[in-house]
UniProtKB/TrEMBL annotation:
<dbReference type="InterPro" id="IPR002172">
    <property type="entry name" value="LDrepeatLR_classA_rpt"/>
</dbReference>
<feature type="disulfide bond">
    <location>
        <begin position="181"/>
        <end position="196"/>
    </location>
</feature>
<protein>
    <submittedName>
        <fullName>Uncharacterized protein</fullName>
    </submittedName>
</protein>
<keyword id="KW-1133">Transmembrane helix</keyword>
<keyword id="KW-0732">Signal</keyword>
<keyword id="KW-0812">Transmembrane</keyword>
<keyword id="KW-0472">Membrane</keyword>
<feature type="signal peptide">
    <location>
        <begin position="1"/>
        <end position="15"/>
    </location>
</feature>
<keyword id="KW-1015">Disulfide bond</keyword>
<feature type="transmembrane region" description="Helical">
    <location>
        <begin position="203"/>
        <end position="236"/>
    </location>
</feature>
Amino acid sequence: MKYIFIICFLPVIFSSPYYHEIEINSDDDCWSSENNNKTIDKNYATLVKFSPKIAYGKDSCSVFITNPWLKNIQNGFGLFLSREMDCASTLTIDCLPNNNLINQVTPAPKQFTCHTSKNKIEMLCNTIRLTYKRNLNSEERKRTTQVQVVALAKEPCDDSDIFFQCQMDYPNSCIDTKLQCNGRSECPSGYDERNCHNAPSDGISITAIILITLALIMLFCILSTVLICCCCRAAFNGIVRRFRSKKGNNTIQKGDITISGEDAGLMKGLTAPATVVEILPQQQYTGPPALIINSTKPIYPRLE
């Protein structure tokens, strides 16, 4: 039952607006400006992965992302590469037409290359286009290009239940507070993942709960094993006692044999009670004197 639950809810977990990934593995996954129904418009952070196998049959491959914050607090996007890209690839970021922020002009397109992999980019518009290209003539080692896109909101970021600020990266913007300590850096410096496991908690941590649960399971297994061993030993001892008792009864029955005839008389004589001999007191002897025989002289028989 639990596996059915996991299978049913995995798509919900990974489609969460606070943790989203898009993998572009073939040219068929690439989007076009006419196909706006594929625009990412409900995610506060998206990791886009461009495979090095794409953009060979086409000139480019594009992805569109829309800022999900309310229009009056939208402040564009922050982008950075989560890993260094190869020099045969380029990634261009620009704003779609008529998608400027309030009181903002359309910013110029910006580009990631192998020489600017460590840079971060801010685009002040509510919908951006990521365009990936590859140089077919380059022999550079192929790598998957991974770009982290996060939707920005205008400061102040005082409400900690809604906003979190990447102070070192986007000092004039906020990101969604649920992106903090989610196991993936949405701030280029990793500021949102710092001190996530050292902060004191009001209750028992998940790690402690897991350890306690494992200890209880282990204790239950040990007690169950001991109980089973005791029951088996008691049963074995009962079987041994019954076997010995049965063997003793067989021995007694074998010893109960009827004896008749001469053997019975002999057995009766052997088992007759012992005769008591009464020793009379010594009396004075008055008969003839005792014959004394000298053992050193031979005695010859008397012939008549």
